[in-house]
Here is the input.
Amino acid sequence: MTRTGRVELHTHLEGSVTPARLILLSEKYGQPGLLTACLNEDGSFYRFEGFHGFLNVFKHVTSLLRAPEDFHAIARDLGVQLASDGVGYAEVTLSYGVLQKRGIDPLPVQSALAEAAAEVAADNGVELRWVPDAVRQWGVDAAWRAWEAAATAGRELGVVGFGLGGDETAGPAADFADLFAEVRSEGFGVTIHAGEVPGMGAAASESVRQAVVDCRADRIGHGLAAAADPLLLATLAARGIFVEMCPGSNVATGGIGTWADHPVRTFLEAGIPCCLNTDDRALFNLDLEGEYRRASELLNLTLTEHDTMQKAARKAAFDCLV
Here is the structure.
């Protein structure tokens, strides 16, 4: 099936909560103090410093997502954001690990998201699919529980893949190899956050290697650390592993210093399929149009290269875009 608009493969539902929606949720649950912890003085955008500051804001935001209708509302909001950004298809990550840690059953939430996706398709012309994920530092058993919930929801409720996020230093990807063998055997895509913080040194590239070799990931989220490892770059290229790049996010969290430092061209020249993504579009105040524009201005990416990335993204989509 041919679809119009850009494709985005790495965007977190929780990171799409707009400041306006956060204000409504804080009023709903009687938590006005969270607004001053998350937003600037006039409530128009999120504020934080560095990666740990971002994680604190992310925790505050997710603490206000409590009922299926809350997730339905933010999915509808995301549909509006994507449509205005020229995105026609998006695979959206939702942390089942966080839901279960907070005592929330993912299945009613996923049902609400499936309803919202149908409405977004009808009203905004955007197709949404869902990629639940687990949190690596909470252990393998918790990850299995998250996967079991995702498998139960299944493609009927729009689930097309399963992922792994969290602290790379606290949960080596290799620990989850058996889990992802099960995910693959059930016909779902595998995407793993890895190599997001090059400052980890050799451990960062090892994280990518484990995700690819041990877990047989179809896609890698971020993957920055691989740029400094020629053998790992060759492995990614030889295996056709897709890298979900998020330059604006990496700058915002301090993973890289500036946009001009992002190694997207290194990956392209190595023959590795990749595309640009927003990661947490509302929290970082990003849009995909802006990411591609900055890639042109600051990294000298051509329109042909943009097109190449989007074609690769269609091919890498877990919903089998062609």
Observations:
- The chain has 14 helices and eight strands.
- The chain has one domain: 7-16+71-316.
